[in-house]
Specification:
By secondary structure, the chain is α/β, with parallel strands linked by helices. The protein has helices at 17-30, 41-47, 80-92, 104-115, 140-160, 176-185, 199-211, 228-239, 259-277, 297-302, 309-319, and strands at residues 4-9, 34-38, 50-53, 97-102, 119-124, 163-169, 189-191, 217-222, 242-247, 283-288, 291-296. The chain is built from eleven helices and eleven strands. Bound molecules: adenosine-5'-triphosphate. Adenosine-5'-triphosphate binds at residues 10-12, 42, 73-75, 77-78, 102-106, 108-109, 112, 126, 128.
Length: 320
C-alpha cells in the first residue's frame, strides 16, 4: 500500500508535539509511505506550505518544546471555500490522509474536512487535558511539572513572608492542571471549573487557617473563574492574611517535554499510523486506562469527558 500522508500542528502549541511528529514520520516511512509536513497549521495548508519529509527531518526534535512545524490560528477555516483551497493542495500532492495535532478547535477543522471527503486522524495535543476520548493529552504532564516547579518556588516566598498566594493556572474550562498540581504541591485549596466556586467558603477556610497560626497558604485556581487580583484583595481584607495573586501564564506551555509526554506522544504517533494502515477513517487517537484507542471526531467533539476529577477532588480535601 503506497500511501501519502501529511501532518500539521494547529491551535496552541504543546510540549510533546515534536515527539509526535517524529513518531508519525518514522512509523510512516517504515511502512514505505511518503510523508509531507505542513507548516503553520491550517494556514499553511491553504497557502500550500507543504514539504516532503525524510527520516532526517525529524532528527533531534524529540526533546524540543513547541512545534518545529509552527502553528497558526485561522478563523477563516470555518468557510468551506477556504477549506476547499486546502483540499486542492492535498490533492495536488496526491495526499490521502491528513494527521492533525492540536486541541478541540483543530478537531473542529478536521471534522469539517472529513465531511468534505478528506480522511483525517487527530492526535490530542494540549496542556489543558480537555479532550474527550482520552485520559491524557500530549503536553499535560509537562505543564503539570512546570506548574509544580513554579508553585514550589512560590511557596518559599509565601512561607518566608507569611503570605497567602493565589496562583492562576491554565486549563480553560478543565480543572485537571490545577487539581493535579494542588495534590502535587500540597496546596491549601483548589478551585476548578467542574465544582461550583463558593467564595465565602474559601474565605472562611483561609481565615481559620490564618487564625490557627499557619505561616502561609497556597490557593490554586483555574483561569477564567474569577479575577484573581480581586480575590487576593478580598482575601487580605477578610482574613488579615497578606495575600498576593500570581498568574503563571505562558510559562506553562513551553519547555522540553517530560518523559511521560515523550512516551505518550511516541505511542500516539505510531498508533495514528497503525489506524491508517488498518483503513480507519476520521478517528482521534486516545489513551484510556493506559490502552491506546480511538474515537470518531463527532464523539470527540460532542461527547462528555470521562471525569477522573471527582475521586481526585475528594482525595485533595482529605489530605490537605
Ligand atoms: P488549544 O486547545 O491549545 O487552543 P485548539 O486546537 O483548540 O488548541 P483553536 O485556535 O481553537 O485551537 O483551533 C485551531 C484552528 O482550527 C483555528 O485557528 C481554525 O483554523 C480551526 N478551527 C477551529 N474551529 C473551527 C471550526 N468550527 N471549523 C473549522 N475550523 C476550525
Amino acid at each position: 500500500m503506497n500511501k501519502k500522508i501529511a501532518i500539521l500542528t494547529s491551535g496552541g502549541d504543546a510540549p510533546g508535539m515534536n515527539a509526535a511528529i517524529r513518531a508519525v514520520t518514522r512509523a510512516a516511512l517504515q511502512e514505505g509511505w511518503e510523508v509531507f509536513a505542513i507548516y503553520n497549521g491550517y494556514k499553511g495548508l491553504i497557502d500550500g506550505e507543504l514539504y516532503k519529509f525524510s527520516r532526517k527531518d525529524v532528527s533531534e526534535i524529540l526533546y524540543r518544546g513547541g512545534t518545529i512545524l509552527g502553528t497558526a490560528r485561522l478563523p477563516e477555516f470555518v468557510d468551506p471555500n477556504v477549506r476547499q483551497k486546502g483540499i486542492e493542495n492535498l490533492k495536488k500532492y496526491g495526499i490521502d490522509t491528513l494527521i492533525v495535532l492540536g486541541g478541540d478547535g483543530t478537531y473542529h477543522g478536521a471534522q469539517k474536512l472529513v465531511e468534505m471527503g478528506i480522511n483525517c486522524i487527530g492526535i490530542p495535543c494540549t496542556i489543558d487535558n480537555d479532550i474527550v476520548g482520552t485520559d491524557f493529552t500530549i503536553g499535560f504532564d509537562t505543564a503539570l511539572n512546570t506548574i509544580v516547579n513554579a508553585v514550589d518556588k512560590i511557596r518559599d516566598t509565601s512561607s518566608s513572608h507569611q503570605r497567602c498566594t493565589i496562583v492562576e493556572i491554565m486549563g480553560r474550562y478543565c480543572g485537571d492542571l490545577a487539581l493535579w498540581a494542588g495534590i502535587c504541591c500540597g496546596a491549601e485549596y483548589v478551585i476548578i471549573p467542574e465544582k461550583e466556586f463558593n467564595r465565602q467558603e474559601l474565605l472562611d477556610n483561609l481565615k481559620t487557617h490564618h487564625d490557627q497560626g499557619r505561616r502561609h497558604a497556597i490557593v490554586l485556581i483555574t483561569e477564567k473563574i474569577t479575577d484573581v487580583e480581586e480575590l487576593a484583595r478580598d482575601t487580605e481584607e477578610y482574613t488579615e492574611f497578606e495575600t498576593r495573586a500570581t498568574v503563571l501564564g505562558y510559562i506553562q506551555r513551553g519547555g522540553s517535554p517530560s518523559g511521560a509526554d515523550r512516551v505518550l506522544a511516541s505511542r500516539m504517533g505510531a498508533y495514528a499510523v497503525e489506524l491508517i494502515k488498518q483503513g480507519k477513517e476520521g478517528r482521534c487517537v486516545g489513551i484510556i486506562d493506559n490502552q491506546l484507542t480511538s474515537t470518531d471526531f463527532v464523539e470527540a467533539l460532542n461527547g462528555k469527558k470521562r471525569q477522573t476529577n471527582d475521586n481526585l477532588y475528594n482525595v485533595f480535601f482529605k489530605i490537605r
